[in-house]
Design a protein that fits this description.
Layout: H1 13-22, H2 38-45, H3 47-51, H4 56-68, H5 71-100, H6 106-115, H7 117-147, H8 157-176, H9 183-209, H10 220-224, H11 240-253, H12 262-265, H13 274-303, H14 315-324, H15 328-350, H16 352-365, H17 383-400, H18 404-407, H19 412-433, H20 438-462, H21 468-496, E1 515-520, H22 526-537, E2 542-549, H23 552-564, E3 573-577, H24 583-598, E4 601-610, H25 614-617, H26 623-631, E5 637-645, H27 650-662, E6 700-712, E7 719-726, E8 729-736, E9 749-759, E10 762-766, E11 769-774
Parallel strand pairs: 1-2, 1-4, 2-3, 4-5, 8-10
Antiparallel strand pairs: 3-6, 6-7, 6-9, 7-8, 9-10, 9-11
Helix pairs in contact: 2-9, 2-13, 4-5, 4-11, 5-11, 5-13, 5-19, 5-20, 6-7, 6-19, 7-8, 7-15, 7-16, 7-17, 7-19, 7-21, 8-17, 9-13, 9-14, 9-15, 11-20, 13-14, 14-15, 16-17, 19-20, 24-26
Length: 783
């Protein structure tokens, strides 16, 4: 392996189109954990929460004014006080969450750790619904803020819906291209809105103190058509009907608390001490949210800012216009407030495009959603999750319309269900662990959970006919579907989980000719065992077990399991770096290089789990077919799919176990040596290292390169083979008596010093002195 092989495989039309639309693929090395300061985290993680202050007061007025008339303005403040009390209680509860679950919090992990995975799926359904509705609500509110800049503009339902859908598609496209929530970029709209909204409140309150704050009057056309009429309203404040209306208004106002969980979901993004920094940021976010909601409600009461049935102009825009006045600088301030409002709302709509795919990947890793959701796409994002979120949000907008008032009934049930699971889960945690001060903490979390559950019940009742019935229906259906998927995955795992019977001295047949077999492995189970045994039956010269590294965590788990099972000696495991996650192309490159370097016919064996029902097949992709189609076009390379039926009855599984016990003791495979390839000499570099392409046999050198592949058990006994490459060629590093070195994995950069020898026809350094310069990029944090 003294020189790299020039691989020239034609690109597919689909991939060329993807590069045009999304740009070149991002490699895994581009993925890093950016730790946020409290200031940056407040801007990045709180946009969804703080932006809800833009429509919380308006949603309460939409319910109060048609029933209570002008008295509804006076009822707005007591209801706002109740909402703020709920905000304080929920904040105290989540302050406990972020201190305990510092890697990845949120109601899903709290429920999973304290109630088990089945109960946790209640939280997962709630959060998934919440993310979908958040995109729709925030985007719709952002469009309303933009339209409110032009009071004469009267857009119809479908015009507003079209604009909102366009924003959702634009956000989806940006996230598919790999837009990241970098601190400075995504923090600006939050701070811009806080300053602008705070200025409105301060100026408005000062003008009210000096008696200069006007009461808004409306034209006859506005009163006759779109303005919520406050003059023909009924004034009965007491009675069952009035209480129902008050509860309905309170439920609408509860939408102001949406996004409060974002800090707990992103605790791992904070700089150390993560829990303490997240706790302070959460408290500051809640103070800002409460201040804005209180201030806007107060000014709406004083100015009689009245909602329009069309949704525009918004209440906050009316309050801003009244506070700043009609002068040119007042109009400029009004426009800036609307721009700030639109920016933070659209930024809040972008937040779920990060949260939903990550949550879906977590749930899929727990085998409650299709595993395709765990794979990163062309630009390092979870593309499948982004596409699913976009489709669901657009379907909701088209079905309901881009009206915040009509979307709110779909919103708060999911939000407060998450609050309920977090509160009750933390209460159980404190009761179980009984740490110092646990009784006080238990009381806070239990109260928060019970009150949030009461809000869910109130919302389900008072908003049932307004659309909440659909969410109430979706909850049990979604939970049952997740349970069904998990049951199917567990059934498949029982059929496949016979790897415990694999033994190091299992079954390979005698070799003949030059024939290399590559067995592709994604995880260790019975389907892989069947492929290995089939590989021995076709009498290969050399057998290589190859895992293409798409996720370093998965590769590390497989590597450790391979070592624990004692498979390294007979089945060398090779980890091949795939920084752009193009699995099909990476396999094709490995097959082509093997054919050229080994001068052998190559067979690629693809273990595939087969399923009888269509519902089962939908849970798995057809990657094996795509790989087979690709490598089949390479000369001297053949692909064979080795199927394994996952629906075997229990008796058949027992017979397979018995056969595995009887299969021990067969001879192992022996690989021949090949001739060395000649390499032209190249000069040493300025830093003292030699270009890999310039090294020669018996020469003592220092080389530096990126790890492309790692193979366990490459030589007799316990050993580790590491293939490194630079721009001039490749070289093997042989570590005898070792099976794993921390950090030495595909994608890492290493500098090694030693004497060059020969191993299986390739230049290699045995037991070199090495220095790990950079470690491979870490995968996304897991719950």
């Amino acid at each position: 392996m003294s020189a790299s092989v020039d691989v020239d495989l034609p690109e597919t039309r689909g991939y060329r189109a993807k590069r045009v639309l999304l740009g070149k693929p991002l490699v895994n090395a581009s993925m890093h954990d950016e730790k946020l300061s409290k200031k940056a985290a407040l801007g990045v993680l709180s946009s969804d929460c703080i932006s809800s202050s833009a429509y919380g007061s308006e949603e309460m007025l939409l319910v109060l004014l048609p029933i209570f008339g002008l008295a509804g303005f006076h009822l707005l403040m007591p209801l706002t006080a109740v909402v703020l009390g709920l905000l304080v209680l929920t904040t105290l509860s989540y302050r406990e969450v972020v201190m305990i679950y510092t890697r990845a919090g949120g109601s899903y992990v709290v429920a999973r750790e304290n109630f088990g995975p089945k109960v946790a799926q209640i939280a997962s359904v709630a959060l998934l619904i919440d993310y979908v509705v958040t995109v729709a609500v925030q985007a719709a509110a952002g469009v309303a803020a933009i339209v409110s800049i032009f009071p004469s503009a009267h857009l119809g339902k479908w015009e507003l819906t079209g604009l909102t859908v366009a924003i959702v598609l634009l956000l989806a496209y940006g996230n598919l291209r790999g837009v990241r929530e970098a601190g400075k970029t995504f923090a600006f709209p939050t701070y811009f809105f806080v300053v602008a909204g705070g200025l409105v409140v301060v100026v408005g309150v000062l003008r009210e103190i000096f008696g200069e704050l006007p009461v808004i009057s409306y034209t006859a056309h506005e009163r006759a058509s779109e303005l919520i009429d406050v003059h023909d309203a009924h004034h009965a404040i007491f009675g069952a009907a009035a209480i129902f209306v008050l509860l309905k208004a309170f439920a609408n106002g509860g939408a102001s608390l949406t996004g409060l969980e974002a800090i707990s979901n992103g605790v791992s993004a904070f700089k150390p001490d993560e829990g303490r920094n997240a706790r302070k940021t959460l408290s500051l976010m809640s103070v800002i949210l409460g201040s804005l909601v209180l201030g806007i409600s107060y000014l709406a009461w004083q100015t009689h800012a009245t909602p329009f049935s069309s949704g525009t102009p918004t209440v906050i825009s009316q309050v801003a216009r009244a506070a700043f006045g009609d002068a040119w600088f007042g109009h400029l301030g009004f426009v800036l407030v609307q721009i700030a409002t639109a920016l933070i709302l659209i930024t809040g709509a972008n937040t779920p495009f990060t949260g939903f795919p990550f949550l879906a990947s977590f749930i899929a890793e727990d085998s409650f959603l299709p595993r395709q959701l765990t794979r990163r796409g062309h630009r390092l994002g979870f593309s499948s999750g982004i596409i699913v979120l976009t489709a669901l949000a657009i379907a909701l907008l088209v079905g309901v319309g881009a009206s915040v008032d009509k979307l709110i009934p779909f919103y708060a049930i999911g939000v407060f269900t998450g609050f309920t699971m977090a509160g009750l889960g933390m209460a159980r945690y404190h009761r179980t662990h009984r740490e110092r001060g646990w009784r006080r903490r238990l009381a806070v979390n239990a109260t928060s959970g019970v009150v949030s559950a009461a809000v869910v019940l109130i919302f389900a009742v008072v908003k049932f006919d307004a659309g909440a019935w659909l969410v109430v229906l979706l909850f049990p259906i979604g939970w049952a579907l997740l349970m069904r998927l998990n049951s199917r995955y567990r059934s498949e795992a029982r059929s496949l989980d016979l790897a415990a019977w694999i033994r190091p001295d299992q079954a390979e047949a005698a070799h003949y000719g030059r024939h290399t077999v590559l067995v592709l492995v994604d995880r260790l189970d019975l389907a892989v065992l069947r492929a290995l045994r089939y590989a021995g039956s076709i009498r290969p010269t050399d057998l290589r077990v190859v895992h293409v590294v798409l996720d370093p965590l998965v590769a590390g788990h497989l590597q450790q399991e391979w070592i624990d099972r004692g498979l390294c000696d007979r089945y060398p495991l090779e980890l091949v770096d795939c920084p752009d996650r193009r699995l099909v192309r990476s396999v094709s490159e490995v097959a082509l290089e093997t054919m050229i370097q080994d001068r052998a016919e190559v067979t690629v064996l693809l273990p595939r789990r087969t399923f009888r029902r269509i519902s089962q097949r939908l849970l798995h992709d057809r990657t094996a077919d795509r790989i087979a189609a690709s490598v089949g076009r390479i000369p001297h390379v053949a692909a064979t799919i080795v199927p394994f039926d996952t629906t075997l009855p229990h008796e058949a599984v027992e017979r397979i176990e018995q056969r595995q016990r009887e299969a021990l003791g067969e001879p192992a495979l022996v690989s021949p040596r090949v001739e060395l390839a000649s390499v032209p000499a190249l000069p040493c570099r300025a830093d003292g290292t030699s270009a890999i392409g310039s090294v020669s046999w018996r020469q003592k050198v220092t080389v530096e390169g990126r790890v492309r592949a790692v193979q366990l058990g490459a030589a007799a006994g316990r050993s580790l083979e590491v293939q490194i490459f630079d721009e001039t060629g490749g070289l093997r590093l042989m570590f005898m008596g070792r099976t794993r070195i921390p950090g030495l994995a595909p994608g890492a950069v290493v500098r090694a010093t030693g004497r060059v020898g020969n191993y299986r026809g390739h230049l290699a350094i045995a037991n070199p002195v090495y220095e790990l310069l950079t470690e491979p990029s870490a995968a996304a944090p897991r719950l």
